[in-house]
Structures are given as structure tokens and as C-alpha cells.
Amino acid sequence: MKNILFVASESVPFIKTGGLADVVGSLPKTLDKRYFDCRVILPYYSFMDQKWKDILEYKTNFYMDFNWNSCYVGIFECVYEGVHFYFIDNQDYFSGDRPYAGMPYDLGRFAFFSKAALSILPSIDFRPDVIHCHDWQTGLVPVYLSNSFQENEFYRGIKTVMTIHNLKFQGIWDMDSVKNIVGLPDYYFTPDKLEYKKDANLLKGGLVYANAITTVSNTYAEEIKMPYYGEGLDGLMRAREHDLRGIVNGIDYDLFNPATDSLIYRNYDSGNFRKEKVKNKTALQADLGLEVDPKTMLIGIVSRLTDQKGFDLIAYVMDELCQDGVQFVVLGTGEERYENMFRHFAWKYSGKVSAQIYYNEALSHKVYAASDAFLMPSQFEPCGLSQLMSLRYGTLPIVRETGGLKDTVEAYNEYEGTGTGFSFVNYNAHEMMATVRYAEKIYYDRKREWNKIIDRAMNKDFSWHNSALQYQELYDWLIG
Ligand code: ADP
Ligand code: GLC
Q1: Is 82 left (phi over 0), alpha (psi -120 to 50) or beta?
Q2: Quick check: CB of 252 below 6 Å from ligand 1?
Q3: Residue 199 Cα, ligand 1 centroid: separation in angstroms?
Q4: Whole-model pTM?
């Protein structure tokens, strides 16, 4: 049996702000249980839903040296869908009303978490062969592991994987504060290690010290070796290219299944979507105050409202698009200017545009099921899960060809009768608009073709099956 340990800052169903939580919550249970015992360590956030707190069992506690203090480390545990989850408790670090509060608060929070994740292993009696770290919040795990933990036999020989879900966030803060808080020797703070433009960079530490690096699609793995997508770390990515690979994300096919999903209005599958799917649209239109019309094309957006997702392109052409016979439903939160932008359009085009500016799991499923198309014109997209959810629900993605969007959505080719969605290349609002209008044309004028695209989309396999095999291969290779 090979022991794999995930360390991450969020995971479905306990805590979620984005796709990272979907991945951490669904990949471990899909690994082959005959060969892999995969467990997960998360922070015990005090704002976690009471329903999850109720199923956690207190295990033990101890004190750990951190930031010039002796800090309390409590351990809670639960088994969820066959996977052991451990939660690290310390209310000085994990209280507040959200997982990320910005620097420098997050620096202390996740440095503490990274050190504690390693420190609890003997107490939970789990010695991993591989520790799989996710994003900058856990970048210090491979670094700490290389340091004083090596004095203890228990930790020697543990391998590490660092997965980049988003290179934009690196955990950067001024050198002196970082040194002071994390308590690592000066040796680590040089330009070939944690130093980055005179500051300290936690993700960079993870990328230097991990035995292997992965990111969540092949295209993104290539893109981040270039300055445009490399966020200042493209040189390091090139230097480590032999240890870097792209493994595309899957989605939880039990949770996201239009045939059984209890969160949507009407279930359907690839056999009966022609009749049944539209009932989701009219029900959502009615619920959200859109004009109820089964024939009008509904374009959905479910997203963090940030620059990454290409909302400035939408801002440029939204007025023009609203002259067309389409409706928009937007579910998202994030940057205030985008929240207000959609509120504005919903006011200006009431009955045609609905802006739901909050986070809501159930509504997200309804949008995936109800919409005809899903718009995701990202500036960059490491993988993207929303387009995979859309494909699964027969909602055709309209995407920009970057990162995982490029790898998972095949552009419709009307001559060959292939493709599962619509895409454009350049980060340009008019290119996006032309693509949306092309999709409108197929939707209104060539409905049979549209439905055949849905057939292909719904029959694609974006479950974890294939990608889990690739992770297993990577773990096997690391363990030797
Ligand atoms: P990212 O991780 O960059 O935010 P992904 O496409 O990988 O993008 O994953 C986003 C996940 O978050 C999807 O599961 C999506 O449905 C969900 N999501 C985003 N915004 C909301 C929201 N406002 N309400 C509910 N779910 C949301
Ligand atoms: C990040 C990326 C997104 C990816 C997700 C899960 O949040 O922005 O593209 O799908 O992580 O890997």
C-alpha cells in the first residue's frame, strides 16, 4: 500500500472558494484503493458550516514551535466518502469569516498550517510516501520537510509533489517578515530558493524543493514556461521542465450528473436532453425574473469575478450583445467593479440579464443545467472546471483558447461535423463577440447541428478516471 497525503487550503464539501476545492475533494477518492491510501489535511476554519463541524471527531493536540511561540495544534478527523480528512485547529490562525484574508495575515496562517501538517503525521500515525501540495498556501511544506524534519527518521525519504492550480498567486511578502515568521535559516532566502525580487516567495520555495511539479492541463504546463503566463517564474519553470507535467483535472461525475442531480429542476441525460433540458431553462427564467421563453438562447456564467476570467472583454461588448436575442444569467462574486458591472446590466436590460452576485452551490448547478451556452473567455486558465461541468450538462462552452480551456473544449467545425463548443484565440472583445454570434447563429438557424454538438459534449469523459491514472503513475515513479 502506498500512502499519499494531500495538503491543501480548501476542499469540497467542507470549504470551497473555487476549483481547487473541487479537485482536492474529488481526486483522492478516485485513486485505486487497492494500491493507494490517500488522506487529506485541511485547516479547521472556524466558519466552516456547522453541519461539517458536527461530523468531525477530536483526536488529540500538542504544542509546536512557530513564530517565536509555542503554538497549540489541535487535530480533528473524519472519514468522508471513504477518505480520511484531518483538520488542523488553532483559532489564532483559522478564525475569521473566510479562508483567505490577504497578506500578511495569510502568510502566518499558511506557514503555520504547512509546518503543522508535517508535525501531526506521527500523531495520526500516517507516514506518507508522497506529500502532494497544492498552490502557494502549501509551498512551505517541501521546504520545511527539507529542513529540521530530516533529523527525524520518520520523515526521511518522503517525496513531494507541488501542483500549481494558479501561478498568479504565489504568497509573496517582504523578506524580513517572512524570515521572522517561518523560522527557516538564512540559507533558504537566496535567489535560487525563496528569494524573489528582494522579497520572499512561498510558492517558489515549493517549486524549488518539490521532487515533482504538476499543473492542471498540458497547455498551461507549456504556457507557464513563457513570460506572458509565467508570472515571473517562467525561468524556474523552464529550469525544472523535466520535472513538470500537465495533468488535466476531472470533475466528480457523481456530484455533477444531470441524470441524478437533485439540485436541478428536471433531470435529463444524453438520450432525452432534447425534450427535458429546456424545462430547466424555463424554470430558472421564471425564478430569476427573466422573460420566460423556451426558445431564447440563455448564456450562463458561473465564476469568480476577477480579471483572470476575461470580464473586461465582456464589459466592452455587453451592450452590443444585449441587442441580440439572447439572455444572460451570471452567478459570481469577486472584484467590486465586475459585481457592479453585472448589476448595472441587469438593471439596464431587466428581463434579459440576471445578475446573482453571491456564492451558491445549488444555483450553480441550476445555471449549468438551464443554460444553452456557457461563456468563459479567460485571459488565462490553468484548467477550468466550469467548462467541464457545462459539457457534462450539455451546455456548450464558448471559451478562449488558453490553458485547460484549449485542452478540453474542441471548437465546432461545421464542415466536418466535429467539436463540443466554440472558441476564439486572441484576447480581443470583438473576436469573442463574433464567436458568441456564431454560436447564436448555429443555435437559432441550425438547431439539429446544435443538438449534435450537445450529443458529443455530453458523451465526452471528463471524470477523474484517466487523470487519476496519471497521478498514480507519477506517485509510483516517485516512490520507485
Ligand atoms: P477557479 O478555480 O479559477 O475559480 P474553476 O472553473 O476551476 O475556476 O472552478 C470554479 C468552481 O467554483 C466551479 O465549481 C464553479 O461552479 C464554482 N463557482 C464559482 N463561482 C461560484 C458561485 N458564485 N457560486 C457557486 N459556485 C461557484
Ligand atoms: C485554479 C484555476 C482553475 C483550475 C482550478 C483547479 O483555481 O484558476 O483554472 O481549474 O484551480 O485546478
Answers
A1: left
A2: no
A3: 31
A4: 0.97
